[in-house]
Design goal:
Strand order of the largest sheet: 1-3-2-4-5-6-7-8
Shape: globular
Radius of gyration: 25 Å
Number of helices: 19
Oligomer: single chain
Strand content: 5-15%
Helix content: 40-55%
Structural class: alpha/beta
Length: 507
């Protein structure tokens, strides 16, 4: 990021991927004027002219540029050769990060008993012989990893004759798990395993590829109603598939034959606000390319619901056309006010960080992705983390409120592991095993509460967090809401409670 800040070209090049070309020349001209060298600064008589140019810079555009430090390494699905290349790089990167932890523990064990565990002596350590040895290990491992990755790349282009082999479904799911755990690290290291954000059709084909096929049976133009399913942390678009071929997407298509169901695939390890901005851009591109789309419905599971809310926030903020076409937003077990497990993990990490000789082990916690960290309090805006050092988020009471978009019917689904309705704080806190009932329903005592009518809320007992996307009862409720399409007045109706009919249904 520092390199970008010191270079106007860095700002301009990054801006190219976020906005239209019409304003790029203006932004570049203004930024170059702002970052001009001292020899280029005009005389005193032109100072006010320069101030006017600075005031003309679009601050909102600069915030977008600073929203994420990494750049996606590819715009195509991860292929089989890229999978092995990425693993080779990941293996050496893992060795380097483990080396960092070992060195940190070694340094603390040596310096703390001597009373020299402070900033000055730590800096001297880096310049000493021991620090140089650790540095050499890192450099050697990175060199080996890069060379091995290059060999695999050459093998792919020469021996395999550039024939791209897609990943099997099992490996695709593994790649998305890796992205959920360390997705931001993959992007920052330009690892080919980093998953790009893309839309897929019901047959598992990238949307752009499916619409460009020379097959008359394929619809080359999307129109009418489009329903987009957004998966959660460590999942993929394949996660919506059901073993009995009766997943949520299939149920929606069967109940509404004139609707098109699309599946979003994305790197769940990146900042939720970054994914929200990217999703916002993809949706705008979608309606620009297919102006006959009359309605968009968003269904998000877990993190997918937060990404959808983030996209709606930034789309409404920028007055984008696609937001006007969104009719329904349905979230399944989304941690609107944070996930309990991430809070516990962060608390444990803080305790370990304060223990002598064990504080360096807290670095293990820093290896988890920024996407997971954002789940601590359900942060979906850049301002919730951008001003902080490191990879943290603002505390619960200081995060910025993000209300629901106006004019869109919103429905919240929560679940609980228990099979019957117990009025207890423990039941609500435990929730589905990952997200509490109150968080999934957007309920809070402060300004962060998301006001949704009780008739738009449903609690499913005997359903785990993961099984929310496969539960028959949840599936039927989501289909019912989409079929109703906002025609029914739920304002005076009570909250929906659903219970398993037998032990076979309970999960």
């Amino acid at each position: 990021m520092n390199n970008i800040m010191n270079s106007p070209d860095g700002f301009y090049n990054d801006r190219m991927s976020h906005g239209n070309t019409g304003s790029n020349a203006r932004v570049r001209h203004e930024l170059e004027a702002h970052f001009a060298s001292e020899s280029d600064i005009p005389v005193h008589s032109h100072v006010y002219e320069q101030i006017d140019q600075l005031e003309a810079i679009d601050v909102d555009e600069l915030v977008k540029l600073l929203a994420d430090e990494g750049h996606e390494t590819t715009v195509k699905p991860v292929a089989l050769a890229e999978f092995f290349e990425g693993l080779a790089q990941l293996a050496t990167t893992g060795v380097v990060e483990v080396t960092d932890i070992v060195e940190a523990i070694h340094r603390e064990v040596i310096l703390r008993p001597l009373g020299r565990f402070n900033k000055n002596h730590i800096n001297n350590w880096q310049r000493g012989i021991t620090g140089r040895i650790y540095g050499t290990i890192r450099q050697v491992m990175l060199m080996v990893g890069n060379n091995l990755a290059s060999v695999l790349r050459v093998y792919q282009h020469i021996v395999m004759q550039k024939k791209v082999q897609p990943l099997p479904d099992s490996l695709k799911k593994l790649v998305n798990v890796l992205n959920g755990v360390m997705g931001d690290h993959l992007v920052n290291n330009k690892n080919p395993l980093a998953v790009p954000m893309m839309l897929y059709d019901s047959e598992g084909i990238p949307l752009d590829e499916a619409l460009s096929e020379h097959d008359e049976s394929k619809h080359k133009e999307l129109s009418g109603r489009v329903v987009i399913l957004c998966h959660g942390l460590c999942m993929s678009y394949l996660s919506w598939q059901s073993q009995d071929s009766n997943g949520l997407g299939d149920a929606i298509e069967n109940s509404q034959p004139n609707s098109t169901v699309l599946y979003l695939d994305y790197n769940t390890g990146r900042r939720i606000s970054h994914s929200g901005r990217k999703f916002c851009q993809i949706l705008q591109d979608l309606v620009d390319s297919h102006p006959n789309i009359s309605q968009i419905d968003l269904v998000g599971h877990s993190m997918g619901g937060l990404v959808s809310r983030s996209a709606l926030f930034y789309g409404e903020q920028d007055h984008l056309d696609w937001v006007k076409r969104v009719s329904n937003l349905i979230t399944l077990g989304s941690p609107h006010h944070g996930a309990v497990l991430e809070r516990i993990g962060n608390y444990v990490q803080e305790i370990i960080g304060k223990l002598p000789f064990a504080g360096s082990l807290a670095k293990l916690g820093d290896m988890r992705s920024a996407g997971i960290i954002d789940l601590r309090h359900g942060s979906i805006r850049d301002v919730d983390w951008k001003s902080l050092e490191g990879r943290s988020v603002l505390p619960q009471d200081f995060r910025h409120p993000t209300g629901l978009p106006s004019g869109i019917k919103t429905y919240f689904v929560a679940s609980a592991l228990v099979e019957t309705h117990y009025e207890s704080k423990m039941t609500d806190l435990l929730g589905d095993g990952l997200v509490s009932v109150a968080s999934a329903l957007g309920e809070d005592d402060s300004e962060h509460a998301l006001f949704v009518p009780d008739g738009h809320k449903a609690v499913f007992y005997g359903v785990s967090h993961i099984n929310l996307i496969h539960s028959r009862r949840v599936r039927e409720q989501v289909v019912a809401w989409l079929l109703d399409n906002g025609q029914r007045d739920y304002m005076g109706e009570p909250r929906i409670y659903s219970y398993p009919r037998s032990w076979d249904v309970a999960v």
